[in-house]
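User: Continuing from earlier, I have the next pair ready.

Assistant: Great, send them over.

User: Here they are, in order.

Assistant: Folding the first of the pair now:
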Amino acid sequence: MGKKRKLFTSEAVSIGHPDHVCDMISDSVLDACLREDKNSRVACETMVKDEFVILSGEITTKANINIEQIAKDTIKRIGYTYTPRVINLISKQSPDIAQGVDIGGAGDQGIMFGYANSETPEFMPLAITMAQDLVKLATRLRQEGEFIYAGPDMKSQVTLEYSENGSVRIDTMLMSIQHKKNYNEQEFKGFIKKEIMEKIAQKYNLNSDYKVLINPTGKFVIGGPEGDAGLTGRKIIVDTYGGYAPHGGGAFSGKDPTKVDRSAAYIARYLAKNIVASGIAQECLIQLSYAIGVAEPISIFVDCKGTNKVEEEKIIKAIYDNIDLSPKGIIEKLQLRNPIYTETCNGGHFGRKFINTEKTIECTWEKLDAIEIFKKLVK
């Protein structure tokens, strides 16, 4: 019998993908509200199709913003040249929900997961990290004018092979990238392989003899909202751990931090990352659960997949003793009332030190300032 091996695949999409267009519009509205009113309550949902942008949801804010113009500006910033027709169906937050949030409770019920492992320096699974790197690099090269035929809509997929001896190699890299109608196909695909795929493989010191798939349908001229409808929150696996860990189902984009779908997922990642970085486990999955209007989590679950040096019950107790997991506590610890969200879908919400390196907006949920809490458990 041959050596045992397993394949694992993760995908990523660019900001020009119709779903991420919606995520970026929703978070641009959120940031605009937070710039003028840090206590804004925002649940902004976006749908795009062809030239239409439809916004719905609930917003309660003192901010004076032009939602229609925000949508138009975001479409342009992503790289599309058309001027969308915007339909605004947003209303105020229900008073029935507000009465629970006003006293510090969670803005909804639900379960949220955080995850970390020691596979990369970012404490993220390797497949999703590479998939995100592919679309980020391709997008940057397009924006800088080096990737001359490319359009904004892009997808990537990375399949890794794990052998029983612990070695990892790339099995397949796939990229589907929108392009101009009149383009040099050979030059286009050659650029993708040499300047994007090979660069990412080299970055992680991995093999170069992987299978390559580029625009396997043959062409990709019609893309973005013209090619497919988009919705906020439809790329939740892309935004998190690439299928390597469970997801509670709640999307992040367009939601202010009183919504635990977002804030609790961020603090769960923070905890998992600090646990792994402390050295007490090589892998960590955390689940938090909340009830609407109730401040403290209903439950905390920790699973280190057998890699832990300390009983998981002690890790849970250390979390309870040291970290305020109420929505108010999470918001204050991670400074989540700042307008930091527009770029979060550009490369995933986790595994990055900064959201926008030009403005050095820090991902506070990626800080490693709780390591000592968990190191003490082995002393």
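And the other member of the pair:
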Amino acid sequence: MLNKKRPFHLMAKPAGPDCNLACKYCFYLEKEVLFGEQKVHRMNDEVLDAYIKQYCESQNTPEIVFAWQGGEPTLMGIEFFQKAVLLQKKYSAGRPVQNAFQTNGTLINNDWCKFLAKENFLIGLSLDGPRHIHDKFRVDRGGKPTFDRVMKALKLMKAHRVEFNTLTCVTRQNAPFAVEIYEFLKGTGSTFLQFIPIIERKPDNEAARLGLKLALPPDLAADDNDDRVMPWSVQPEQYGQFLIDIFDEWVRHDVGNVFVQMFDVMLNGWMDMPPPLCIFAERCGDSLIIEHNGDIYACDHFVYPDFLRGNILETPMTDLTGSPEQKKFGDDKFDSLPDYCKKCDVMFVCHGECPKHRFIYTPDGKPGLNWLCEGYKMFMHHIDPYMRTMAKLLRENRPCADIMRMIPPKAG
């Protein structure tokens, strides 16, 4: 019987926080301290079977989407995912299954590509830009650069016709190179681009107690309004300008051919449609994660003891994801917003962004403002006339790409 409760999405971390890289800005590697003395974290067959069975039964959708992340999921080996695919076919009740797989790419070889192509996995490849940008933070456990290995994986995936997109982390150091990064990614053949702002705070008292090196989300942190960010954290205006610089290239040359996740999300807002990304939703709580041992947490950015919902080997998945605690977690995204945000002219598309980033004060001295607020305002005000035009085109059953003929060339 299919689940009748509220829909949810679950992202699986079959290798937990384990990774063969040691990216300097990674927020998940340190989560290994939450699992005690265990040094290697791998999802066993019992958890895998329970996860796939319960998740298939929970989804009231014509297609079932599985998402695999990490750490680094390729550490599990191909055989693990072959088992996963067989279990999906067993429990999906005849419905098609889609697998999305986020990887650093360094372990991808011909055998991996044959499997991924055969089973139609969609690959998200972490790639921060050209060599001098990518290798600044994305290094292996020995501190060696990874750019060449990632590019080798990208070429292999293209040769095997593995569907892929790219995920790029935006830091204080690479934000000034927006157009260079964008043109490089296009040149690799990536046609769907994700840009993720990296924002982490220096450890607070609660983080130190747990043995963590980064601060907890602001509602848990002992110094809950401390805005001392790590040196790689992107600055608000930097991020806003980064998005503007890429948007100005995209809207003149690439609409309809290159898809930028952020721009798709923005267009949904101007079309009065629900955002496809949880951080921009009015309320959240429907995108949880399952760790290697079957533990379910409220969110990928809230993997801390207070946000552990339970284990699927002990409690049905739907009871955990639909718990009162999880509903409150999702409602708090809106309910905890300061009035300053609720009166903002871009509230309709921003919705305060992710609660993890709400650790500064509003101009009137209230806590709970998002670190990226000023950057988002810059960006959203800049794109407003373009988004209005594209929304109008769509309502007239015309392609958004028509906007490119309506915009004069960029000055200079």
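Worth noting for the second one:
The mean pLDDT is 94. The longest helix spans residues 373-395.
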